[in-house]
Amino acid sequence: MPGTPALHVEARLSVPLDLVSVCSLLYRAVPGSGLEPWLVATRRELEAETVTDLDVLHGFSGRLLYYMEEPVMAFRPLSAERAGATYDDLDAFLASLPPEMFRAMAIHAIERVHRDLGVIIPPPTGPDPDAWRRFVGPALTTATVDEVIPLLIDPSLLRERTIRLYRTIWADHYAAAFTDHLPVLGRAATLAKRSVDQGVSMAFSALTGHRLPATLVADLGRVKRVVFCPSAHIGEFVSYIVYPPDLVVFFSAPNLVDRVGTGELGDPAAGDNDGNAGALASIGNDRDLLEALRALADPTRLRIVDLLGSGEQYAQEIVGQLGIAQSAASRHLAQLERAGLVTVRPSRGVKYYAVDPARFGQVSGQLLRRGAAVDEPGP
After folding, report:
1. 226 - beta bridge partners?
2. Looking at residue 269, what is its pLDDT?
């Protein structure tokens, strides 16, 4: 979209962010969940107090588990000064925060759930339990309101249990596993750097094995930086943190390294030095590029892109401005959607369309790279 700044996309290994991922995976790792056996076995080994903390602290901020992201994102793990942060750095930071900060983070997490649900419930200004019940109610999943309200009325309890959970998971269950997997995590982070210059959608597909979800596409307008972080235990599970202006996407480090080792993707590190992009970045590029170019090679579809450049519109608006039959407009929109150039957001029976600036950036980048690879003519 003209005037829209390009997203900054990178890959890096982060201990604090990896810990958030592991905690959320352990929360979900009940028998039959389909998650990695290590996660299920580790959850089974947790002491009763730790299981309670895990379920309560993840269970009052919606299905996306917003609260447990808050303390780590407050640490600013993606800032330059925290690039090599250890767990001890995170722990010292959390220990320095007053209890009121933990309540503020909990309130912010619940407000994020309210935003997702489209409801407006102001947070209480005092200790009235009924007011807290109304505020917390829409965000509850596995926690009960009677478990959560005491933590919000007395945030020293919330602070104590949050820090205790992080410390217990790290020291008793994950530190040794993290050390064992560190070579694979580091290798995966290095490999991932070869694909992030292709843009969010292509990198997401190459690294996670999944198409970029529509929910994330809708959130890209609020994001300025996307960071792909390797995880030792995520497997095929899709996990991410949307915390504007940042988006963190976790991907399986072992899966990526295994695919490179078997030659399925090729090894970018073993490639030549002629300026070509690595194998990770090139998966499906030619096919996807051709589909995008075909979608744009039509005056009506270009007009649709221009219309959507001013903002999201629903189908009937587009039909009215184009002056063509609705069936024809639907065919054009469908082709743009298949090419990933346009996103669709259903709402109350109406489809809203918008351009995907990240996808346009990928197409532009692929064309520019091809142009740069052409030898300049001699004198």
Report:
1. 9, 247
2. 41
